[in-house]
Design goal:
The protein is mostly beta strands. Helices cover 6% and strands 46% of the residues. It is globular, with a radius of gyration of 21 Å.
Length: 448
């Protein structure tokens, strides 16, 4: 019997060490205890997107108030330790008036040459149009892109909102969002050449507008698969509520009829209000969508996985669907990243009965919560005593995770970053997915 005790002790020590290793914690060497809040503009800023440069510097994009009158595109770049990069813009910050009225930056992408793209929308006093701005690596406007670095595109005759961005392997740029046809909204895509001009070889005069179910439809996130096909998720209204919609286009902008036989698929989850906020493509061609489902006064994280031909993947969750409640009064998934081991990281926010907090969750390849991640598969971070909205996720080359969004601090709103140290099972982002679908921010908590 005495010989057994040392073995048991060793096992207990290993189990204890494993539990400690599995804990996810904020990186105390980053900012203040792993958290950074940055004020930009006069009366608040909303962080919408985050990317990590190859050199480890972090860029957050969104929009900020211009003296309380209008909003402008906004960028902040941080060094790897979280300090502001003084070689970028003015003290690490850039604000851009795109169209003279309010402009809303929504989605970031980094070109292979290091130039920075921020897409969103710009109002002109009457309606809103797609907006796209390109910056040099130092934060200055790229004068060789569009009109001195800026491109404004009217997709339809009424309001158009750019929400997401992707760069094709040939360098062409696609912005996805929604367009008002005078009666309701449709999915909308615009493709640009490398110089910012509209690519007239795409769809009709560079623009693809798609009615999904005859009522309000809106595109929220875009991804490009290894075959160059374009996937856009969002929502489509049915007769009673919203469904999660997923569309696939051929590289020329036409709907891909091999995808669910129509190029479109819409899923209603238990008769609730549902929306897709992020889409990624796995290395095996399967498609993952993250978003929310609203039912009985409560929001839940929703993950869906589809086969490459647009059918629900029955090996994932229940008939391809996973719903997760985190917090006291609901959670909303805003962004996701795929890891090389098949696991799925989801960023969003949860309500704690008084306000919203950052949430990070990890799922196994079959859709179950990964209990080796922080012992129960998720972690919630309180940043301020008011609302904290996580809108974007990025993963560093060492596997550490960055969530970005905004926090309310009195009458001010700030760009906010939280950086987490995790265990080795999240060490690698799915590189094939990363090359084809830049980590862009999903739509704001402020609805357009």
């Amino acid at each position: 019997m005495k010989r057994i005790y040392p073995i048991i002790n060793i096992i207990l020590l290993l189990l204890a060490a494993n539990n400690l290793f599995a804990q996810t914690k904020l990186d105390n060497h980053f900012g203040t205890n792993g958290i950074i809040t940055t004020s930009i503009g006069e009366n608040g800023a909303i962080g919408q997107s985050v990317v990590v440069q190859p050199d480890g510097k972090i860029i957050v994009g969104g929009y900020s108030s211009n003296k309380g009158l209008y909003f402008d595109f906004a960028l902040v770049r941080y060094n790897a330790d979280g300090t502001l990069d003084q070689n970028f813009g003015a003290d690490g910050k850039v604000m851009t008036d795109v169209g003279g009225f309010s402009d809303y930056g929504k989605a970031l992408a980094i070109q292979t040459d290091g130039k920075i793209l921020l897409a969103g929308s710009s109002t002109n006093g009457k309606n809103s149009d797609f907006a796209l701005v390109r910056y040099n690596t130092d934060g200055s406007l790229d004068q060789n892109f569009g009109d001195h670095g800026k491109v404004i595109t009217a997709v339809g005759k009424f309001n158009d909102y750019g929400k997401s961005i992707a760069i094709e392997s040939n360098g062409k740029i696609i912005v996805a969002g929604g367009s008002d046809n005078g009666y309701n909204y449709d999915f909308a895509l615009v493709r640009y050449n490398i110089d910012g001009s509209i690519d007239n070889s795409f769809a009709i005069n560079g623009k693809a507008i798609t009615d999904v179910k005859g009522s309000n439809d809106n595109g929220e996130s875009i991804a490009i698969d290894v075959n160059g096909k374009i996937l856009v998720t969002g929502y489509a209204f049915n007769d009673k509520d919203k469904d999660i919609a997923l569309l696939r286009y051929n590289s020329n902008g036409s709907l891909d009829s091999s995808f669910n036989r129509s190029g479109k698929v819409a899923i209603d989850i238990d008769g609730a209000y549902d929306a897709g906020n992020a889409v990624r493509v796995q290395s095996d061609g399967k498609i993952v969508v993250a978003g929310y489902s609203y039912s009985t006064y409560n929001y839940s994280f929703v993950l869906l996985r589809y086969t490459a031909n647009g059918l629900p993947d029955n090996s994932f969750g229940l008939s391809g669907i996973v719903t997760t409640s985190i917090g006291d009064e609901g959670t909303t998934a805003k962004s996701l990243a795929l890891l090389s081991n098949g696991k799925i990281m989801v960023g969003g926010y949860a309500h704690n009965r008084s306000d919203y907090d950052f949430v990070l969750a990890c799922y196994n390849v079959d859709g179950t919560m990964d209990e080796t991640f922080n012992t129960d598969g998720e972690t919630t971070t309180v940043i301020t005593t008011s609302n904290d909205y996580c809108n974007a996720i990025a993963i560093e080359s060492n596997g550490n995770i960055i969530l970005a969004g905004s926090s309310s601090m009195g009458s001010d709103e700030t760009f906010t970053i939280a950086k987490y140290i995790v265990n080795e099972h999240t060490q690698a982002l799915d590189q094939s997915n990363r090359l084809k679908t830049p980590l862009e921010l999903q739509p704001s908590s402020i609805e357009n």
